[in-house]
Automatic annotation (TrEMBL):
Belongs to the ATPase gamma chain family. It is a peripheral membrane protein. GO terms for molecular function: proton-transporting ATP synthase activity, rotational mechanism. This is F-ATPase gamma subunit. It is found in: Mitochondrion inner membrane. InterPro entries: ATP_synth_F1_ATPase_gsu (IPR035968), ATP_synth_F1_gsu (IPR000131). One of its GO terms (cellular component) is proton-transporting ATP synthase complex. Keywords: ATP synthesis, CF(1), Hydrogen ion transport, Ion transport, Membrane, Mitochondrion, Mitochondrion inner membrane, Transport. SUPFAM superfamilies: ATP synthase (F1-ATPase), gamma subunit (SSF52943). It comes from the Eukaryota.
Amino acid sequence: MGSAENESFSLCKFSSFMFLLHRIQARGMATLKDVAMQLKSIKNIQKITASMKMVASAKYAKADRELRKAIPYGTGAAAFYEKAGLIKKEDQAPAQGHLIIAITSDRGLCGAANNVIGKAIRELIANEPVKDSTKLVLIGDKVRLMLARQHSSRYLLSFADVGKKPPTFEDASTIAQALINCDFEFDKASLFYNKFKSVVAYTTTVQPIFSLEQLQQSSSLAVYDSVDDE
């Protein structure tokens, strides 16, 4: 009888253990089958991520090649303004009409790359010397959405889908012609954009833009040869 009682007691303990194990698994503990399925899912995600990395690397290499072709035009214009003494002269008097051109992306996980431009424009408008003298030309949906709540009344022009393909002179001339045809008269213009440094680094830059009249008034402009004078 003692042996039978021990066997019965052992069976009860085993049954209780299996019952508790089943309850624990039912509450969320994974079985071996669940673990195997999860590992298989992770491996599939790794394959997809590797493919996405390859596609992103190819797109980045293409964008980098296009950017390097355009860099000399921007640096050349900035050097011309500096040599002509226009940048120092531009900061002397408060502008009666200030045009701000902001360039951001339309979408994408760019994070602070877009936010810093919106923040810089808000600070500039808050400290403008002449009230309601600033108008905005927005290239990219991100900056348009960021400033819509407080400064939508200042919107002059907005453009989207500019960066889907490599920028061309035709894109720039279309925007420039729209600015020329607008009714807003301004004596100061600033271009806000992020200057590329590396994949994870950039410099938020404010580039002044000058009119033909301002260029002609520069005393240092004589050091440059003019094709029109010949």
